[in-house]
Fold this protein.
Amino acid sequence: MKYLHLVWAALFRRKARTFLTLASIMAAFLLFGLLDGIRTAFVQIGQTAQGAQRLQTSSRLSFMDTLPLALRSRIALVDGVADVTWANWFLATYQNDRNQIFAFAVAGNYLDLYPEYGVSDEARAGFARTRTGILVGQDTARRFDWEVGDRVPLLSSIYPNSDGSMDWEFDVVGILSEAEGADYPLANVVILMRYDYFEEATPYVNGDVGWYISRVADLRQSDRIARDIDALSANSRHETRTMSEQAAMASQVRQLADVGLIVGSIMGAVFFTLLLLTGNTMAQAVRERTSEIGVLKTLGFTSTSVLLMVLAESVLLVVIGGVAGLGLAMVAGPAVGRASGGMITLPPVGLDSWLLGLALMVGIGIVIGLLPAWRGMRLPIVDALAGR
């Protein structure tokens, strides 16, 4: 620490070059903060205390394939299953294609298995008595300025209505939110509609459901219960795959895209480019100070001290830019959400992302500074003073 003023002075000796390098590092870690937040969100999807008690049963072939509704009663009879519900995708837009709606058609007891949803008794009663009723996440309601009592037109992306058109109309009967103490952001954006109305209104659904959700009485029996559920449809046209809710959601995401691989590939390319850029900057900075290194050694600075000062300069450069980039990512995420009216929701930069980011900053700083520092340490005083 006693040489920090020397490190700081050397770092900002060429201010224009330093600030341009810092801008590149900031951009890299801004991208890292946003992408790692998305990766973490997908990794943690379904990880709730209540979610551990739920098993999801879907088609073995694809999560888009449907299952017969008759399977529900058979699943309910499996030893260890406390309750069963079901749901179906309902992909739609509002007003234009940019306003995508994340919606499910759900059974009447769906909310009983999902205490993570915060919904009033009045809203649940309205949902039960209104066939065209929908429950709307508070963020979605705020985004489109919907209120309870509004009649909402939606355009389905898959399912035609009974009149053959893709136009549907629903009545907002309640607002959803995360239940107190729950970490379930899906509740703030999702729309739930009644499965019985959905099945009645479209000719493309006839006694089929998208997936089943079972609540188990004993977590220790989950694996056995999952096998017993899948055995019900073995060797049939509707073979199933049952797994924990977290594993099921992760599997569905992987069928669309390998988020981890995509994020890792992008960040690998970004950090490789960053290594080349900042490594060249540090090498050039040390070459320019060859004679100064000779003076330091003449004054009694050891070779180890020179090595550590160059490494400290390299690490400090990356840490300053990286912390600024991650800080900017914390601000940029909510700002993007507000600017898009909630259409784009980026997860916050959490503690795990910060810890991983700081480790990357220190590691990158050491890697890019090691060669210039080693060269400065091994440089003879005579050659250094001669500028060689």
User: Anything to note?
Assistant: The longest strand covers residues 81-94. The mean pLDDT is 80.
